[in-house]
Specification:
The complex is a heterodimer of chains A (366) and B (534). Chain A is α+β, with helices and mostly antiparallel strands and 366 residues long. In chain A, 23% of the residues lie in helices and 35% in strands. Chain A has eight helices and 20 strands. In chain A, a hairpin with a 2-residue loop joins β11 and β12. Chain A is elongated. Chain B is globular and about 75 Å long. Classes of the chains: A alpha+beta (366), B mainly alpha (534). At the A-B interface, β5 and α2 of A face α19 and α20 of B. The complex binds adenosine-5'-triphosphate and magnesium ion (MG). The site of magnesium ion has 2 residues of chain A, from α1.
C-alpha cells in the first residue's frame, strides 16, 4: 500500500474531528473523501499534508512516516492560496527554490508543468490577473511541479462555475492518470466523487463509514447514511422468506423477490432493510406478475427524467422515469417493478454498546 | 506548526522576548517601583498636586469632547463628495498630524499672547490666551485630526444604500442622520474619543508652552525634576498620570474588539450618495473654514515669526533667525537621524512581534501581546522617566547617549507598528502560510517570502507614523536630553521659555520642512512597491 493511515485521531477541544480513521490505498489511486460538512475531511487531508500533527495514530507514505525528508504530500487549497505578490512563475517555482534546485532545472520543470496544466504563456502574470479557472490550474501546477508522492486536493473545484467544473474535472483526471500520482480528493459533490474516483471513502462524524469503488458505494451502501448521502434511495423493511446459497428471498411490498445475500447472515423470519435506487424502479403501463401498483402523488420534471412519488399501500416510493415522452398524471394508478439486481440489502446495523455505528477499516487491493 | 531545528527562528524569538522585557517592561516597572509609600503621601498631601490632578482631568474632559466633535464634523464633511473645498479641508485636517503638538500652542502664543500679533499687534489689547483657554484651544486643534481619521474610516463603511433605503421608507434628512448615520458611527465616535483622550492626558508640549499657571500632571512631573531634582516625586506624578491613561486604554481596546458589527453590509454600493442640502453645505463649509483659519494661524505665526526681528515689538523683516539656524544643525540632524532609526526599529520589531503572536509561534502569546501594546497606554513623559531611571547608571548606562533616545522612541512607537502588523496579518489568508509550509518553507522563510512582502505597505505606514511621532515628540525626550544628545524639539521648548520667539519659530519651520521632506522622499522611493495587488 502506498498511502496508509492507521487509527488517525485528532481532537479540537472536546470535538473529535478524526476518530480512529484507518485506510490504505495503492500507488496511483484516486481516493475521494466524501461526507457532510464538518465530518473531518479537511482535517484528514491537512493531517496527510503534515499541516498539523495527529493526537494519535500514524500516517505513512511508501512505508515511511511524514516527518523525514521534504514534503511528500502537497496540497492544493480550496481558495488556491496563490501568493499574491509572486508571478505565476514565482508561485510555481517556489517549492523548487526551497529545494535549492538550479535556475535552469527550475525553468525547465516549471515549463513542463505549465505545459500539461494548460497555462503556458501566463508565467509573468500576477494571480490577480488570472481568471478563476487559470488560478485553479496554477494552484495545481504549483503542487504537481513538486512531484509529490501524494497529491492532496481540498474541494478544488468548488469556486468554479458548473461548466468550468466539468472541463477541469476531466482534465484533472487525465493529468492524474498520466502522472500516476496517488491522489486524495475532498469534495461535497457526490457526482464528482463517483465520476473521478477509483476509491470513495465516506466519512461521518470523524469516522470512516464505508470505503469502496464508486459502484460499490452506490449500489451496496453499507448503511442508510451512505445510501442517503450518495444519491436518492428508497428504504424498505422486508421479511426474509428464504435464505441460503448466497441468496435471500424476501417479501417486498407483498411480492417475493430474490437478491444477493452478500456476507450477511440473515435468517428466515428476520426483518431486514432494503434499498432501491429511483432509477431501478420501472413504471409500467400494465401490470406484470412481479409488479406492485400504486397511485402517483407527486411528480417533478428534471430535464432528462421525471421523478414520481408513488404511494404503494401506504409506502411512498421514489421512481425516476427516463421515458419522458409520456406524462403520468398525479392521481393516476400505475404499476411499478424493479429492474433485475435493483434491490440491495443494507448491511445489518450492528449497534455497539454506546449505540453508535462501528467504524470500518478500508483497504482496497489494486 | 513549530518545526524543530530552526535555530534562526529560536534566536529571533529569544532576542525579541528579551528586547521586549528589557526595553518596555523593565523601565515601566522601574518607575512603578521607584517611589516609596512616603513619597506618595508627600505628593498627595500637597494641594499643588491635587490641583494639577484635577486640572488634568478637567482638560481631559474639555479637550476630548471638543476635539472629537470637531473631528466628527470634519470627518462628516470630508465624506460628502459634493462639498466645495473638500480637498483643502482634507489637507488642513492632516497638517497638525505632521507637526509637533506644542507647535500649535506656540503659534497661538504668538498670535494671542501678551505680545500676540492679533491681540496686541492688531487690536492693541494687553490680554493673553495663556492659561486653560489657550490650552483647550491648542489641544483641540492638535488632536482633532486623530478623531477625523478614525471617524472618517467608520463613516466610509456605512453604505450609501442604507441612506437611500431609509429615504425610500420616507425618513427625512435630519431623521436619517439621527437614526442611520449617528447610531452606525456612534461606536466609532466613542472609539475615536478614547484615542483622543489618551493623547490629551499625556500631552506635555502644549501645557508646557501655553498653560501658564494652570498646571497639569505632565508638566508638574517635569518641574518636580527641573526645580527640585525630586525623581521620586516625579515618578509618583507619572504614575498618577498613568492610571487614568491605562483605564482609558483598556476600555478602548475592549471597545475596538466589540465593534466589528460596523462592517456588516460592507458590500460596495454603486449608489451615489445623496446630495448634501445647501443649508448643510453652508454649515459644514463655514465650520471647517473656521477651523482651517485656526490651523493656518499657527503656521502663519511660525513663518512670520521666523522672519521678523522682535515678535511683538519690532516687526522689521530679517533673515537673522534663519541664518543663525546653522548653530542648530546638530539638533536637526539628530532629530532626523534618531527618528529614522526609531521609526525603523519600531516597525521591524513591532511587525515581527505581530507575526510571531499571530502565528502563535511564541510562548505566552497573550503576555507578549500585552507587553507589545503597553507603550500605547504609556504617556510619553512616563516612558522618558522610565528610561532615565532604568538606563542612567550601570549596569546599563546610556546617560546622554544617542542610543537612549533612539531606544525610548522605538519603545514608545512599538504598539502602533505592532497593531498595524496584527491588523494586516489578519487580512492575509492563513492558507498562504500553510501553502508555503506545505511546500517546505520553515517559519523564517515564510516570514521572509510571504508575510514580509505582503506587509510592505503596512510596514511603510508603520515606519512613517513612527518617524513622525518621534521627530515631533517632546514628552519622551524631555527627561533624556543632555547637551550631547539633544534634539530640535527640546531646543525649541527652551527657546520659547527663554523668549527667543524668532529662533524658536525658525527652528520649528525647519523641523516641519525636514519632516515633510523625509516623509515625501520615503513615500516616493518605497511607496510605489505598494502598488502590487494583495
Ligand atoms: N482549527 C480548528 N479548531 C477547532 N475546531 C476545528 C478546527 N478545524 C476544524 N475544526 C472542527 O473539526 C470538525 C471537522 O472539520 P473539517 O474542516 O475537517 O470538516 P470538513 O469535513 O472539511 O467540512 P467541510 O465540508 O465543511 O469543509 C468541524 O466540526 C470543525 O468545526
Ligand atoms: Mg473542508
Amino acid at each position: 500500500m502506498h498511502l496508509e493511515i492507521e487509527k488517525a485521531c485528532k481532537s479540537f477541544g472536546a470535538l473529535k474531528a478524526l476518530d480512529g480513521v484507518s485506510l490504505a490505498v495503492p500507488r496511483g489511486s484516486f481516493l475521494t473523501l466524501l461526507g457532510p460538512s464538518g465530518c473531518g475531511k479537511t482535517t484528514l487531508l491537512r493531517s496527510i499534508a503534515g499541516l498539523h500533527s495527529l493526537d494519535s495514530g500514524d500516517i505513512r507514505v511508501d512505508g515511511n512516516g511524514l516527518g523525514a525528508g521534504g514534503p511528500k504530500a502537497v496540497m492544493v487549497f480550496q481558495d488556491y492560496a496563490l501568493f499574491p505578490h509572486m508571478s505565476v512563475f514565482g508561485n510555481v517555482s517556489y517549492g523548487l527554490k526551497l529545494r535549492r534546485m538550479g535556475p535552469e532545472a527550475i525553468a525547465k520543470k516549471v515549463d513542463d508543468v505549465l505545459g500539461y496544466s494548460g497555462i503556458r504563456g501566463l508565467e509573468a502574470r500576477l494571480p490577480s490577473q488570472l481568471s478563476g479557472g487559470q488560478q485553479q490550474r496554477v494552484a495545481l501546477a504549483r503542487a504537481l511541479v513538486m512531484e509529490p508522492e501524494v497529491l492532496l486536493l481540498d474541494e478544488p473545484l468548488s469556486n468554479l462555475d458548473a461548466k468550468l467544473r466539468l472541463g477541469i474535472r476531466s482534465e484533472l483526471k487525465r493529468i492524474q492518470k498520466d502522472l500516476g500520482v496517488t491522489t486524495v480528493y475532498v469534495t461535497h459533490d457526490q457526482g464528482e466523487a463517483l465520476a473521478l474516483s477509483d476509491v470513495v471513502a465516506v466519512m461521518n462524524h470523524g469516522r470512516l463509514i464505508q470505503m469502496g469503488s464508486p459502484r460499490d458505494i452506490y449500489f451496496h451502501p453499507a448503511d442508510e447514511f451512505v445510501a442517503d448521502f450518495i444519491g436518492t434511495a428508497n428504504f424498505l423493511d422486508a421479511l426474509v422468506l428464504e435464505a441460503g446459497g448466497g441468496r435471500l428471498t424476501v417479501s417486498f411490498l407483498g411480492k417475493p423477490r430474490t437478491l444477493e445475500a452478500g456476507q450477511s447472515t440473515c435468517r428466515v423470519g428476520e426483518s431486514v432493510t432494503l434499498c432501491v435506487r429511483p432509477e431501478s424502479l420501472k413504471i409500467l403501463e400494465r401490470e406484470s406478475p412481479s409488479s406492485v401498483s400504486g397511485a402517483v402523488v407527486e411528480s417533478m420534471f428534471e430535464g432528462n427524467h421525471v421523478r414520481y412519488w408513488i404511494d404503494v399501500g401506504g409506502t411512498t416510493l421514489i421512481a425516476d422515469d427516463h421515458e419522458i415522452g409520456r406524462e403520468v398524471r398525479i392521481g393516476s394508478r400505475v404499476s411499478v417493478d424493479i429492474v433485475p439486481d435493483g434491490l440491495h440489502l443494507i448491511a445489518k446495523k450492528t449497534p455497539r454498546e454506546d449505540g453508535s455505528r462501528t467504524a470500518v477499516e478500508g483497504t482496497i487491493h489494486g | 506548526m513549530k518545526k524543530p531545528g530552526e535555530p534562526g527562528f529560536l534566536f529571533l524569538t529569544v532576542a525579541l522576548l528579551g528586547a521586549l522585557v528589557l526595553f518596555v517592561l523593565y523601565p515601566t516597572l522601574r518607575v512603578m517601583a521607584y517611589p516609596a509609600l512616603r513619597d506618595y503621601r508627600t505628593i498627595l498631601a500637597d494641594p499643588r498636586y491635587s490641583k494639577a490632578l484635577l486640572n488634568s482631568l478637567v482638560m481631559l474632559g474639555l479637550s476630548t469632547v471638543s476635539a472629537t466633535l470637531v473631528g466628527f464634523v470634519f470627518a462628516f464633511a470630508l465624506t460628502r463628495r459634493d462639498l466645495p473645498m473638500r480637498r483643502f479641508f482634507s489637507l488642513i485636517s492632516l497638517l497638525p498630524l505632521f507637526s509637533p503638538p506644542f507647535v500649535v500652542a506656540f503659534g497661538y502664543l504668538m498670535m494671542f499672547g501678551k505680545n500676540g500679533l492679533v491681540t496686541h499687534g492688531i487690536f492693541g489689547l494687553r490680554v493673553s490666551i495663556l492659561g486653560w483657554t489657550g490650552l483647550w484651544l491648542s489641544q483641540t486643534v492638535s488632536f482633532f485630526p486623530v478623531a477625523t481619521v478614525a471617524i472618517r474610516n467608520i463613516l466610509e463603511t456605512i453604505p450609501a444604500n442604507l441612506d437611500h433605503a431609509a429615504k425610500n421608507l420616507g425618513a427625512s434628512r435630519v431623521r436619517r442622520f439621527m437614526t442611520i448615520t449617528l447610531p452606525l458611527a456612534s461606536s466609532g465616535i466613542l472609539g475615536a474619543a478614547l484615542l483622543v483622550a489618551i493623547l490629551v492626558l499625556a500631552d506635555f508640549g502644549n501645557p508646557v508652552m501655553i498653560a501658564g499657571d494652570f498646571t497639569v500632571l505632565a508638566t508638574e512631573a517635569w518641574l518636580r525634576i527641573q526645580g527640585w531634582a525630586d525623581v521620586r516625586g516625579a515618578a509618583v506624578l507619572c504614575i498618577l498620570l498613568l492610571l487614568p491613561s491605562l483605564v482609558i486604554f483598556v476600555f478602548q481596546r475592549l471597545w475596538a474588539k466589540n465593534r466589528s458589527f460596523v462592517t456588516v453590509g460592507g458590500k460596495a454600493s454603486s449608489l451615489e450618495p445623496e446630495p448634501t442640502p445647501t443649508a448643510g453645505k453652508a454649515f459644514l463649509v463655514s465650520f471647517c473654514s473656521l477651523v482651517a483659519v485656526l490651523v493656518l494661524l499657527v503656521y502663519a505665526a511660525l513663518l512670520l515669526g521666523s522672519l521678523v526681528n522682535g515678535w511683538g515689538y519690532d516687526w522689521t523683516p530679517t533673515l537673522r533667525w534663519i541664518r543663525e539656524l546653522s548653530v542648530q544643525w546638530g539638533e536637526l540632524g539628530r532629530s532626523l537621524l534618531f527618528s529614522l532609526f526609531a521609526g525603523l526599529i519600531s516597525a521591524v520589531v513591532g511587525m515581527t512581534t505581530a507575526f510571531l503572536v499571530h502565528e502563535k509561534k511564541v510562548p505566552m502569546a497573550k503576555a507578549v501581546d500585552v507587553v507589545a501594546m503597553l507603550p500605547a497606554a504609556l504617556p510619553g513623559i512616563f516612558i522618558g522617566m522610565g528610561y532615565s531611571i532604568a538606563f542612567n547608571r550601570p549596569p546599563i548606562d546610556l546617560y546622554g547617549t544617542a542610543l537612549i533616545i533612539v531606544l525610548s522612541l522605538s519603545a514608545w512607537n512599538l504598539s502602533t507598528a505592532y497593531q498595524t502588523g496584527l491588523e494586516s496579518l489578519k487580512q492575509i489568508s492563513p492558507s498562504l502560510n500553510e501553502a508555503a509550509a506545505n511546500l517546505g518553507a520553515g517559519t523564517l522563510r515564510i516570514l521572509r517570502d510571504i508575510s514580509l512582502p505582503l506587509l510592505a505597505g503596512p510596514f511603510l505606514s508603520a515606519f512613517t507614523v513612527g518617524f513622525i511621532r518621534s521627530i515631533t515628540t517632546l514628552s519622551v525626550i524631555v527627561f533624556l536630553a543632555t547637551a550631547s544628545n539633544t534634539v530640535a524639539t527640546f531646543t525649541i521648548m527652551n527657546f520659547v521659555n527663554d523668549g527667543f520667539y524668532g529662533k524658536a519659530a525658525a527652528l520649528s519651520v525647519t523641523l516641519l520642512a525636514v519632516t515633510f521632506l523625509a516623509v515625501g522622499i520615503t513615500r516616493l522611493t518605497f511607496g510605489k512597491k505598494q502598488g502590487s495587488p494583495a
